[in-house]
């Protein structure tokens, strides 16, 4: 089952000075070329077509991060599918993991509405929540 997080709830995390990206939460942007036209502050970019190959290394590198959030442009296909692939990879890893492994408690969410929702919600009111915004880069609206 896919669990979603709203843009407002994610923004609370990003704004919170006591929360650090890649430590307290991880935002995984699975868009392709349009990532360079703007992305969520502190996010990493792993294009959806690379998730299958990179899920295990992401899980290992960020195993202590309690919340991992995936998104694409709209979070209708690539974001949820990437979250599922990542979660299945984590579950496979946990079969042989020792008890107490932080992956047991890691939550995986999908950003409701994707980056497009985030962009239109915050670009004019809180542009510091968006890194490298470039209005000339075409948006991937599918």
UniProtKB/TrEMBL annotation:
Which parts of the sequence belong to the Rhodanese domain?
21-127
What Pfam families would the database entry show? Rhodanese
Which UniProt keywords are given for this protein, alphabetically ordered? Answer: Hydrolase
| Documented EC number(s) | 3.1.3.48
Molecular function per GO: protein tyrosine phosphatase activity
GO CC annotations, alphabetized: cytoplasm; nucleus
In terms of InterPro entries, this protein maps to:
Rhodanese-like_dom, Rhodanese-like_dom_sf
This protein's name: Cdc25 phosphatase Ibp1
- The source organism is Coemansia interrupta
């Amino acid at each position: 089952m896919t669990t979603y997080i709203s843009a407002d709830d994610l923004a609370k995390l990003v704004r919170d000075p006591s929360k650090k990206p890649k430590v307290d939460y991880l935002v995984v942007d699975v868009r392709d070329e349009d990532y360079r036209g703007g992305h969520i502050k502190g996010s990493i970019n792993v294009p959806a077509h690379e998730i299958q190959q990179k899920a295990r290394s992401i899980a290992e590198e960020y195993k202590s991060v309690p919340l991992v959030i995936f998104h694409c442009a709209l979070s209708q296909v690539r974001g949820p599918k990437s979250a599922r692939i990542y979660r299945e990879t984590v579950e496979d890893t946990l079969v042989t993991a020792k008890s107490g492994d932080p992956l047991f408690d890691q939550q995986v969410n999908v950003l409701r509405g994707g980056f497009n929702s985030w962009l239109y919600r915050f670009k004019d009111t809180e542009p510091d929540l968006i890194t490298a915004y470039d209005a000339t880069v075409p948006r991937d609206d599918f």
